[in-house]
Write a structure and sequence with these properties.
single chain; 8 helices; 9 strands; globular
């Protein structure tokens, strides 16, 4: 028996067969071993289900759920959340990677600092795994209003402690894009405190379908988050969108310069 609390890792799966093995193996390589990896198959048309089955045969900590119909990442994550048995809920998308000490370092950080909801620093990598030499550093804390203008929290680094956070607050709104940011806002709006961990423990893969280079689509998604999900007033939405555009442009300028100079 281990005295370490169980960590439930939530991973939605859709069209990620080329990245999925590395993602699963990054969990298996964790120095913190008391985890369950819940992979929610959103009716993916590729061979991800077969890949998961092979890993699950050899590791009982790997759990597989298949949705009845393609429903989007929010519903997939919510199905996995319902099945989760751990004290801690961690998020890992099927194309991202954790460093081997991610869980151990972050759970230790949360215990020592009485943290409710945290996100570690993470670095960005290209689809092929090439480092972008870009590290995203978490603020020590962030408020609801601050997060509206700077969606810096990324699923790859998030862990919540269910002894301190109502599980209902982790149920994601049923929107196709931006459901993760909407969930973090939901938590902050309901009094959950965020604490950033300034240690790089994960890698966020910039695969083509996840790129925010389509500025118009990203702006539409953010605008809907403000008006359709958070129900902000028109003036506040405009102010928040200006802040969001500023932070997004800083990120694009940096990445653009890096790509140009490669």
């Amino acid at each position: 028996m281990t005295d370490k609390p169980l960590v439930s890792i939530i991973t939605p799966v859709y069209n990620c067969e080329q990245y999925l093995p590395l993602t699963i193996e990054s969990v298996q390589a964790q120095t913190y071993e008391n985890w369950e990896l819940i992979l929610a198959d959103d009716c993916t048309p590729d061979n991800s289900a077969d890949i998961i089955a092979e890993y699950a045969k050899k590791d009982s900590r790997i759990k597989y759920i298949k949705l009845k119909e393609n429903s989007g990442a929010a519903i997939a994550r919510n199905e996995a959340l319902e099945a989760a048995k751990g004290r801690y809920i961690a998020y890992l998308d099927a194309d991202d990677i954790w460093l081997p000490n991610k869980l151990e370092r972050q759970i230790d950080f949360m215990k020592k600092n009485d943290v409710e909801f945290s996100c570690c620093d993470y670095e960005k990598i290209e689809a092929d795994g090439t480092p972008l030499n870009k590290t995203v550093h978490m603020p020590e804390t962030i408020t609801y209003n601050q997060l509206l203008s700077n969606t810096i929290i990324q699923t790859v680094g998030v862990i919540a402690d269910l002894e301190k956070v109502d599980k209902k607050l982790l149920v994601m709104p049923n929107v196709r894009r931006g459901q993760d940011s909407a969930t973090w806002l939901q938590m902050l709006r309901n009094g959950v405190k965020f604490t950033g961990q300034n240690e790089v423990l994960a890698q966020y893969r910039r695969v083509p379908q996840s790129l925010s280079s389509n500025k118009f689509s990203a702006m539409k998604r953010t605008w809907y988050l403000y008006r359709g999900v958070e129900h902000l007033s028109l003036p506040k939405s405009i102010v928040c969108l200006i802040g969001w555009a500023y932070h997004a442009s800083i990120k694009r300028i940096y990445v653009g310069k890096f790509i140009k100079n490669k």
